[in-house]
Amino acid sequence: MNGLITFLEQKVSPIAAKIGGQRHMLAVRKGIISTLPLTLVGSFFVIFLNFPIPAVAEKLTPYLPILDIPYRFTVGILALYATFGIASSLAQSYKLDQLTAGIIAVMSFIVTSIKPVRLFEEVAKTNLQTEVVAAGRYLNIANLGAQSLFGAIVTAIISVEIYRFMKVKNITIKMPEGVPPEVANSFVALFPAGACLILFWVIRHMLGFDINATLSNLLMPLQGFLAGNSLLGGLVTVFLICFFWILGIHGPAIMGPVIRPFWESSIAENMDAFSNHVAATDMPNIFTEMFLQWFVWIGGAGSTLALVCLFLTSKSVYLKELGKIGFLPGLFNINEPIIFGAPIVMNPTLTIPFILSPLVMTVIAYLATITHIIPMTVSRTVFTVPSPIGAMMVTNWHIMAGILVVINFLVSLVIYYPFFKVFEKEQLASEGAES
Q: Transmembrane region positions (predicted)?
């Protein structure tokens, strides 16, 4: 293990540092980290929205619309906040006005993400009480969440580069000396703002190009390959979900249109077979969503609960505090605080274990399934149940399913450990430089 850590520090870490220190990569990391307070607060409400105890969940049902509000305005529009943070950070590296750059980027992102909906008549809506939605124009915030994070990164970078280009080429309106800086900056940004507005308006609304929808369409040819029981298909699914997260794209959101119809039909087939007294070891499908949820995504996509536990032992003040904050959400398989707090997004050091760990765990769980050590999944439950319990629930309370979760967790701990030590060393160096 020490030899591996030394190899990573000598060979991998310099390359990772070079990539991670690149201006745009650094801006993306800083911008995403800036959303950490919101993801932490919002993530706790996910537990209430998907409460793992049925009796409590039933009592909370009437209040779900109200409980959903804090989540929607934090994690639910995370990409919007990230856009401002990324643009502001990139602008700082170019010595541009950060506030102006952030505002232009947010405008650009909204233009690329949302089509306003107009209601010509008021509409009655019933939640806890009857409400009236007045006629007017409304923005659907569904496209502002983590599933649009890749679009946020692209629009933030492009808008700042346009702003920088126009300022360098003096394509700006210069105000006389003595004009307050905030006023002067507003006029300097006039042409860049107009250019960004027209560019992204034409791309999204005139040409109809949607970045995230395009990614989903590109994956559609893979549907036949992914929708099967082959180990290779399962590994490709796991790899793509983790890979998209690394890029800052909500993996399940992108893969959903491709793989979710299979997931839904496969678990339905298993449940139907089980209700007809077929043995749990003889179900028709291995790779259901529940299989990945409980045996692979321990603590969330990338199996990050192991990383959280390692953070708790860290000598780095930041990582230790992040581990404390992320531990409880991690137990309930909510890992946005870690993905966006470390961050794992655009982090070359943590990319390898974030992808490798789930792949290894998928192989282990697959082998345990085909050798009948554990049964196949025959039911479904909400993702906020702690993993060993959830695994036993969906396998008809099979004790070996819970034991396999513990084994896979230990495996992920071993895989993450050397990369954690390298990342910890980088973080300690950064904290030392700041002090």
A: 32-57, 69-87, 138-163, 183-203, 224-247, 291-313, 325-346, 352-378, 399-419
